[in-house]
Amino acid sequence: VHSKAFDYPDLARGFVSSLYSLLVDVKAQCDALPSSSLEPYPQSSIVVTLEDMDLWMQFHQVGTEMIITKSGRRMFPQCKVKVTGLIPYAKYLMLVDFVPMDNFRYKWNKDQWEVAGKAEPQLPCRTYIHPDSPAPGSHWMKEPVSFQKLKLTNNTLDQHGHVR
């Protein structure tokens, strides 16, 4: 039984892009504060870098897919990012949300995935909030942020905080 395959580099780009967008939104809110409250961080430049990119690329080259279940499955490789440029004393939430790359459903045919029609309407997006959230920027920047406990599920009624 096959489930929709994840394209690891695209998944990684989506993960980093979502996290970066969230951090940029937080930075914009901080930029709106009086400049005296942010000294000496007025021009903070947030950078989010995916850790273990070589491992992600190895999985991509092999064409590895991840089959998800109703009970949830931990993502591998795990999402781990290095974050810099946060205001050390400002509080941040770190979260992951997954969004479809297109509006199609897929089926496995011989040795590849093929479009099999339009996708079902999406339920409201589910997000996974990092268990350390909220925490100051200094916490998030001291070591890579790992989302090792994140589980993916295909259960639309999941009540355990897994991401669908």
From TrEMBL:
PANTHER family from the UniProt entry: MGA, MAX DIMERIZATION PROTEIN, T-BOX PROTEIN-RELATED
User: Which SMART domains did the record assign?
Assistant: TBOX
Does this entry carry the keyword DNA damage? no
What subcellular compartments does it reside in?
Nucleus
Report the protein name in the record. Answer: T-box domain-containing protein
Q: Where is the T-box domain?
A: 50-164
- Gene3D superfamilies from the entry? Transcription factor, T-box
GO cellular-component terms in the record?
chromatin; nucleus
What is the scientific name of the source organism? Chelydra serpentina
Task: Give start-end of the signal peptide.
Answer: none
Which is an annotated GO molecular function term of this record? DNA-binding transcription factor activity, RNA polymerase II-specific
| Xref: SUPFAM superfamilies | p53-like transcription factors
Q: Which InterPro entries does the UniProt entry name for this protein?
A: p53-like_TF_DNA-bd_sf, T-box_DNA-bd, T-box_sf, TF_T-box, TF_T-box_CS
- GO-annotated biological processes: cell fate specification; positive regulation of DNA-templated transcription
Keyword annotations: Developmental protein, DNA-binding, Nucleus, Transcription, Transcription regulation
Does the record's keyword annotation contain Zinc-finger? no
